[in-house]
């Protein structure tokens, strides 16, 4: 039996996310799935029955007519997860929230509230926003540059964490016999004055059973990786092959250690898309047919997202890939630079570059249940992943994974047979952060810490 256990998150994508052009046509998926709370609640309960660690809600706040179906019409993450908090009992609830277009006090208060509502199951997927068009939805002319976005993100998270320590755990005696509701010596203002924010505090929400929400981070740029190594407790990544994933895993663990963190407190969680069938051959045929059915015009339109939704339809698809790297400078800089390099080195046309980008998204987890379980085990034991965030579309496909793949992993001692705790931190095996003011009091040995 292995002491180290796989961790699983589930990301429901309703009527279909990027590259999923035909998902909404499936008979199991209602046309309004992405805005139907009953749909989400049913899925969340299935995830919980399968003993998954958390529900992971992705988000963005800028769309065009070419955006994926799920992006066009979906529920706001914190509102959605607050509803799921009362529809579930053990599974974690992770919301995607941008630091570029929010204030840390507001975000800290929202997440602290979700953490209390759920009994300590909240998580925050920290993003800086990919789409520059978001700026125009928040009364700004331009998106922030990479350096500013990520320095702001670091300060944003730092402030939120400081606010979450506004109250020590014993701040509210609620002693009716003694008439003592609150101990003011256990309340602490933050008094933050920084490059991007000035926040006095204190926050008017107490700490939850897990101390603070779990911080997730996803970013593949140099700035994104540095932020993840600094603040991320769960790091979401999208490698498609084992070697790429293992290299990222080793790099991020080393980066975290270099910052004085315990690498075991940083969970690397690649994206997981599964294609299951009775045999490997049948699964590969299903996967091939899915990609063959894609409409190139739609793929070309979606291809423009990391390029600020640049219109690629204006080019001859069979001419050399155009020089458009400048459009990705404030958006998907890492992926656009990679595509430009590959296209130049291989002499690819626009059509070939789009198809190359699509092939990069094809999953390695295709086959019969044992084949998929073997591949998950290879990534886990080979230190390419501590777990996965599974993209979920068709409910019966998830049920098959839960009913046929997870039992194999449990037999091998790689996945839990019951929840270990009631909180997200407890189930992920992450430590509860001690309140900084309580720690200071213990260190100096006085009756109260400095506010």
Summarize the structure.
With 451 residues, the protein is an alpha/beta fold. 39% of the residues lie in helices and 12% in strands.
User: Radius of gyration in whole Å, from Cα?
Assistant: 23 Å
CATH superfamily of the largest domain, please? Luciferase-like domain
* Residue runs with pLDDT of under 50 for 5 or more positions: 447-451
Strand content: 5-15%
Give the neighbour order of strands across the main sheet. 1-2-3-4-7-8-9-12
**Mean pLDDT, all residues:** 93
Supply the number of structural domains: 2
Structural category: alpha/beta
CATH architecture of the largest domain: Alpha-Beta Barrel
Instruction: State the major sheet.
Output: 8 strands, parallel, barrel
* Helix content, binned percent: 25-40%
User: How far do the termini sit from each other?
Assistant: 47 Å
Question: What string, H for helix and E for strand, traces the elements in order?
Answer: EHEHHEHEHEEEHEHEEHHHHEHEHHH
Global geometry: globular
Give me the CATH fold name of the largest domain.
Answer: TIM Barrel
Q: What CATH first level of the largest domain would be assigned?
A: Alpha Beta
Number of helices: 15
DSSP strand count: 12
């Amino acid at each position: 039996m292995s002491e180290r256990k796989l961790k699983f998150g589930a990301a429901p994508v309703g009527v279909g996310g990027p590259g999923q052009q035909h998902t909404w046509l499936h008979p199991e998926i209602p046309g309004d799935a992405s805005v139907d709370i009953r749909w989400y609640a049913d899925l969340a309960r299935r995830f919980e029955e399968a003993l998954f660690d958390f529900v992971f809600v992705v988000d963005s706040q800028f769309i065009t007519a070419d955006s994926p179906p799920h992006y066009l019409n979906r529920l706001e993450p914190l509102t959605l997860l607050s509803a799921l908090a009362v529809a579930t009992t053990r599974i974690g609830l992770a919301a995607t929230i941008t630091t570029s277009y929010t204030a840390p006090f507001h975000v800290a208060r929202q997440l602290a509230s979700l953490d209390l509502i759920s009994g300590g199951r909240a998580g925050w997927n920290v993003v800086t926003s990919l789409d520059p068009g978001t700026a125009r939805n928040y009364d700004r002319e331009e998106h922030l540059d990479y350096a500013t976005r990520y320095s702001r993100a670091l300060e944003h998270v730092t402030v939120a964490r400081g606010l979450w320590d506004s109250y020590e755990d014993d701040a509210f005696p609620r002693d009716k016999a003694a008439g003592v509701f609150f101990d003011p010596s256990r309340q602490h203002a933050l008094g933050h004055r920084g490059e991007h924010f000035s926040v006095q505090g204190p926050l008017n929400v107490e700490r939850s059973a897990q101390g603070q929400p779990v911080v997730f981070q996803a970013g593949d740029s140099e700035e994104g990786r540095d932020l993840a190594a600094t603040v991320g407790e769960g790091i979401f990544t999208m490698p498609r092959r084992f070697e790429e994933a293992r290299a990222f895993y080793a790099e991020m663990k080393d980066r975290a250690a270099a910052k004085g963190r315990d690498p075991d407190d940083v969970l690397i969680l690649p994206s997981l898309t599964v294609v299951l069938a009775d045999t490997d051959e049948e699964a590969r045929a299903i996967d091939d047919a899915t990609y063959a059915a894609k409409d190139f015009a739609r793929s070309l339109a979606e291809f423009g997202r990391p390029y600020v939704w640049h219109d690629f339809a204006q080019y001859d698809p069979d001419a050399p890939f155009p020089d458009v790297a400048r459009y990705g400078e404030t958006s998907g800089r890492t992926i656009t630079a990679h595509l430009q390099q590959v296209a130049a080195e291989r002499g690819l046309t626009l059509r070939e570059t789009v198809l190359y980008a699509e092939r990069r998204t094809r999953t390695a987890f295709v086959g019969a249940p044992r084949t998929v379980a073997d591949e998950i085990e290879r990534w886990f034991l080979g230190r390419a992943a501590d777990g996965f965030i599974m993209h979920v579309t068709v409910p019966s496909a998830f049920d098959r994974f839960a009913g046929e793949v997870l039992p194999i992993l449990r037999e091998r001692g790689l996945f839990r047979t019951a929840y270990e705790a009631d909180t997200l931190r407890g189930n992920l095996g992450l430590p509860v952060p001690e309140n900084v003011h309580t720690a200071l009091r213990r260190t100096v040995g006085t009756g109260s810490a400095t506010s």
